[in-house]
Description:
Helix content: 10-25%
Radius of gyration: 22 Å
Strand content: 5-15%
Structural class: alpha+beta
Oligomer: single chain
Number of helices: 3
Shape: elongated
Number of strands: 2
Order of helices and strands: EHEHH
Largest sheet: 2 strands, parallel
Amino acid sequence: RRTVEMAKVTPLIKTKPVKKKTNKFFRHQSNRFKRVPESWRKPKGIDGRVRRRFRGNIRMPNIGYGSNKKTKDILPNGFYKFRVSNVADLELLLLHNRKYCAEIAHNVSTRKRKEIVLRAEQLNIRVTNAFAKLTAEEDE
């Protein structure tokens, strides 16, 4: 069905990122009032229970929830992401194809995407969104 087979590149070191907290931090009282959006804002009131970290209240984000530096930006496939806008950007990954994978930028046309995917196949570079923006007629 698809003419281009994606490169079967494996990362040099496959480490699984460990997340300390996977659910989001919600803003205090966002569940009580529709006018208070869910996006996190630090409570600044003088009597705020959340700001004063009373037991039983929602947790505030702090540096302790940060990820391990070694696995911070690693994708689940074991690679770091590198955004590519044209074929020339792929040449930067020539010697780093076991550490970085290419991700085609969202504003790249279908014609340029095909060129990027073909060149990535030649350079043995993994592309995360290789088959995005392909219509049914072009795919056949």
